[in-house]
Specification:
The chain is an alpha/beta fold and about 300 residues long. It has two domains: about 190 residues, Rossmann fold (3-Layer(aba) Sandwich), CATH 3.40.50.170; about 100 residues, Formyl transferase, C-terminal domain (Methionyl-tRNA Fmet Formyltransferase, Chain A, domain 2). About 25% of the residues lie in helices and about 25% in strands. The strands form three sheets. Strands 5-2-1-6-7-8-9 form a seven-stranded mixed β-sheet. A hairpin with a 4-residue loop joins strand 12 and strand 13. Helix 5 runs antiparallel to helix 8. The longest helix has 24 residues. It is elongated. It starts with a strand and ends in a 15-residue tail after the last helix.
Length: about 300
């Protein structure tokens, strides 16, 4: 494959495997990523930035790329490749490369355009998802499709599915680039009648509604595991759930009541059946097994008949 000069744009861990694949076969001239996050005295850099620094690649972090993009236009390149960058990119940047600007997206487009396709595919109970590599266009995730590959979701959590799709994207990206520059791909327009959206997650998406069936709550927990996490509250205190299962229940307890407490778990009544909770994160604490929590302060908080807020 001919080595190309590439500008890569990405931020979370999803982009790391894809950037690593590009570095192996091309010259990545510039990495564009979101600004560092500051929490007190701690500064958190994006996973993509960490890899770029490790590889000695120049990093550019505009606050608003629609206003601050001169650095990109001053960097000659054959391709711009994006993967979960996190900002809307203007047409001047998209038109900059010699060949094209392309995006690696974590869904089978036109299904799930938007910022949370991986989480919502789990929450909605989809059997499969995949990677779409496409031309970038003015509309969000609306560009013509260069290639798609699918995988089964199974019982993967959001973290696990992110990793699976990142690895799939990394496997796909260089062959797609090779075929693209050699004129071996005929792009396919998206069917607008099949478009669905996956908007960014909100705090409302994270709150568990026990008036739903237990299997739906389990999908929500898997889809938000580990970040940001699905939660419930007791006396206004937040408890995030990281491991659970839906279990049969013939209890006459009302919804949102703890109906059983065992050594390793406790069970909350849902609209249909119940949610067996095995791993949690109480507010201000680290993630822990329910066994550890019940052996400590939890024994005074989690008990049969306790109502959830």
């Amino acid at each position: 494959m001919k080595k190309l000069d590439i500008i890569f744009m990405g931020t979370p861990s999803f982009g790391v495997a894809i950037l690593a694949a590009l570095i192996k076969e091309h010259d990545v001239k510039l990495v564009v990523t979101q600004t560092d996050k500051v929490n007190g005295k701690k500064v958190y850099v994006s996973p993509v930035k960490e890899l770029a620094i490790q590889e000695g690649i120049e990093v550019f972090q505009p606050v608003n790329i629609r206003k601050d993009y001169d650095k990109i236009l001053a960097t000659p390149c054959d391709l711009i490749v994006t993967a979960a960058y996190g900002q809307i990119i203007g047409t001047k940047v998209l038109a900059h490369p010699r060949y094209a600007s392309i995006n690696v997206h974590g869904s089978l487009l036109p299904r799930y355009r938007g910022g949370a396709p991986i989480q919502r595919s789990i929450i909605n109970g989809d059997k499969e998802t995949g990677i779409t590599i496409m031309y970038m266009a003015k509309g969000m995730d609306s560009g013509d499709i260069l290639r798609e590959e699918s995988i089964e979701i199974g019982n993967q959590t959001s973290d696990e599915l992110f990793a699976s799709l990142a690895n799939l994207g990394a496997k796909m990206i260089n062959p797609v680039i090779n075929d693209l520059v050699n004129g071996k791909i005929e792009a396919v327009k998206q069917d607008e009648s099949l478009v669905t959206y996956a908007p960014n997650l909100t705090k409302e998406d994270e709150l568990i509604d026990f008036n739903k069936d237990a299997f739906l709550v389990c999908r929500q927990v898997r889809g938000l595991n580990s970040n940001p996490g699905a939660y419930f509250t007791i006396d206004g205190n937040v408890y995030k759930i990281y491991d659970c299962e839906d279990v049969k229940s013939n209890s006459i307890e009302e919804v949102k009541v703890i109906e059983k407490v065992e050594k390793d778990s406790f069970t909350i009544r849902c609209k249909e059946n119940a949610l067996k909770v095995k791993e949690i994160k109480p507010a201000g604490k680290n993630k822990m097994s329910v066994r550890d929590y019940l052996n400590g302060k939890g024994k005074d908080i989690i008990f049969v008949g306790r109502k959830i807020d």
